[in-house]
Amino acid sequence: MAFDVSKVRSAYPALADGYAYLDGAAGTQLPETVIDAIAGAYRAGLGNSGGTFPASARSDAITAECRQAVADLVGGQADGVILGPNMTTLTFRLANALAAGWGPGDEVIVTQLDHDANVRPWVLAAARAGATVRWAEVDLPSGELPAAQFAGLISDRTRLVAVSAASNILGTRPDVAAITALARAAGALSYVDGVHATPHGPTDIGALGADFYATSAYKWSGPHIGAVIAAPQLLETLRPDKLIPSPDEIPERFEQGTPPYADFAGASAAVDHLASLGDASSGTRRDRLVAAMTAVAEYEEGLAAVLFGGLAALPGVTLYGRPRRRTATAYFTVAGRTPVQVAGHLAMRKINVWNGDNYAWELAGRLGIRDSGSAVRAGLVHYNDRTDVDRLLAAVAELTS
User: Fold this and answer.
1) Most CB contacts within 10 A, which of 37, 152, 181, 233?
2) Against a cut of 0.90, is the pTM above it?
3) How many whole angstroms separate alpha carbon 112 and alpha carbon 360?
4) How do residues 310-333 score in pLDDT, each as one tens digit?
5) Integer Cα distance of 114 and 326 in angstroms
6) How many Å apart are CA 22 and CA 12, to the nearest integer?
């Protein structure tokens, strides 16, 4: 059965405003079921965790369901799901906890491909510990992150390898499993940024070999919360900074402050929404998610071919990166126009895109465009359709004629 994008789009009330939402790489819109779940949680009444009254019990149940939903989405364990405000905050938190065991002579590997949220926390933590930072380089012009180079970077002094499962500007999908295997063989941990990868296909953190896997619900039709997933046994070895009276169990001891319970309800609803995108009506939620996200990946691949081909055919347009495996994310410039001018032109035609480095700080610098305003990013997700792409191509063509 073909992917029914019209049916999918009808679930998203925001899409009725006539805009082409090609800003999905920065954050997605919410389906009605997610909005209802958040509102419903508030309507029912919520209380802080651990109380003796029903509103508190509802919050505890919502939190438990959110952990299970995220675990189902990525193939993890519910009691290894750390929830928090966003991936960046959680990564800083994990970096501080992990770096407590680092010292001079230890090494940390980061990459030029990554969003700065999977670079700067490790660089800063290493500096405080006196550890050395080593860099994996991006191949240009392909935009690939060759896995083979990690064999020369990883040593018995390596404590952690931080790598992205997909670039948030080029869409590059490196061979994460090969990289984490090298790390594991040397006794190092791996921290995989899956924020951009998760919305674009099925995720299996076991197959990726990720010791830690980070994701953000607002990139897959959920509210603004983040999660880091790890084996409970690994989390038990870490002692993050925390308040004395706050829970000491895992994963709660990594979760600082009072959580947004209603948003957790929304995240669970978002996972259920994703599970409904495929043809499968039976099986576990995990089974339905794998089937649905496989269908999403196939649909986006076809739409991306139109996007990439159309941009490449326009005179004066430079499309960055041509990796073998990529998400449906285009990063481009238009000759004679600054990125903000291009984005503004598109906004006037009711097309939403982003401009700038999009926090891919090292990669924008490697591309040589960081100081000139970087580029324009158009990112497709499962609710975009051919009309969105055609509108973008027509509007960009106006700038090149």
Assistant:
1) 37
2) yes
3) 8
4) 999 999 999 999 999 999 999 999
5) 14
6) 14
∠ CA 187-189-191, nearest 5°, is 160
Taking only the tens place, the pLDDT of each residue in 151-197 is 999 999 999 999 999 999 999 999 999 999 999 999 999 999 999 99
For residues 15 and 35, the answer to whether their CB atoms sit within 8 Å is no
Please check whether residue 50 is in contact with residue 191, taking contact to mean a CB–CB distance below 8 angstroms: no
Nearest partner of 78 among 61, 96, 53, judged by Cα: 61
Strands laid side by side in the 189-193 sheet: 81-84, 226-230, 212-216, 189-193, 158-164, 107-111, 132-136
Residue whose pair of structure tokens reads 């870490």 in the numeric block: 238
